[in-house]
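Can you please make up a whole protein chain along with its C-alpha cells because I've never seen that pairing?
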Amino acid sequence: MAIEIMLVVGTRPQIIKSAPIIHASRLASGVRLQVVHTGQHYDYEMSKSFFGELSLPSPRASLNVGSGSHAWQTAEIMKRLEKVIRVDRPDYVLVPGDTNSTLAAALVAAKLRVPVAHVESGARSYDMTMPEEINRVVADHSSNLLFAPTRNCLRNLRKEGISRSRVTLTGDTHYDAFCKHAESITDPRLLRRIDIDGPFAYTTIHRAENVDNRRNLTEIVRALLKLKKLQIVFSVHPRTESRLRKLRMLRRLRESGNIKIESPVTYLQSLALAWRSTVVITDSGGLQREAFWLGRPCVVLRKTTEWPETLHNKRTMLSPPVTRSVISKTHKVIAHASSKCAVPRADRNSPFGDGHASERIVGLLLRRLLQRAK
C-alpha cells in the first residue's frame, strides 16, 4: 500500500522549502508524492528555473492562476484545485508556508474532507493586517497535521488551543534546504554576472505593506539612496519593479552611484549574495532566516516578525519603513557583526532544527496513514 501525497506550491519560497520534502519522499518506500503548482507567481518561467536548480520533477498539474487581488487569486486557486483533488483523491494534501496558495489548498481540501498537513505551522507575527498572517492562522486551524519548525511555533499553537495530537515539532524544511546547499554557495561562478567591488548590501523588497504603500516604498528608497558608503545590490521582484516604475523611482535608483538593479536571482545566487554581503536589507522572512543561518547582519523592513528566533544576537533587527530608522539600524547591525566564516555550514544548535525535518514529515505522514488503515 502506498501513501498518495499532493503537495501544493505557488511561489518560489514554497518551492525552496518543499524541495527537501520532495527528495525525502522519493527515498521513502511506500510514498508517492505529486506536486501541483498554482502559478501564483506570474513570473512562472522563473519558478520553473527553481525546479531545475533544485533537481525537482515537473508538477503533476500547473493551474496557471497568475496575479490578482487576494480574494480573486484565492478563489481561482480553489476552483481550479478542487477539480484536481476530486480526480486524484490523495491521502493528504500538503501545504507549505503562508501564501494564498497555502490558504486556498487548505480550505478546498478541508471542504472535500481530504486530510490537510501544514508545513511551517505556528509561525506568528501577531499582525493581522498582513495577508500572510491570516493565511497562517486559517491554514493551521483547518489542518489535521501541523508541523512546527521551532519551539516558539509549537508554543504559539498550544496557546491557540490546537490539540497536541495534531502538532509535531519537526524543524524547518527551509533549513533542510540551506543545510544541503550551504557549502556550494562559495562557487564564484554563481555571481559571475553581478559586478561587485567592495562592501555591499543585498536588498529585496516584495511585501504588499511596503510595495503597495507609496509612503513606505518612498521611505525605503530614500534610505537606500542615502547609504552612500555601501554598494546596494537590489534584486527587484517584478511587482516591485512595476511599482517603482509607476512612482518614477526606478530611474532614480538606476542613476544613483551606489545601487545596482538586478533581475530576480536564483536560490543559490541569493544565498551567495547574502553570504558575501556586508548586510542584508529585506522584508522577506525567508531571506531573514538565511541571513541568520549565514551569520550575516540583517535589517528586516517590518515592525513585527514571525521569526523572533533570529533577533537574539543583535545581528538581526526590525525597522519600520522609515528612512532614518533603516539607516540607523543598518549601521547598528553592521557594528554587531562577527567575522564571516570561510565556508557556510549548518549549526547543530540551530533553533530551526537539525536539517532533517523533511524526513520526519514524510515518515509521520506514512505512519499516520498506516494507523488509519488498521
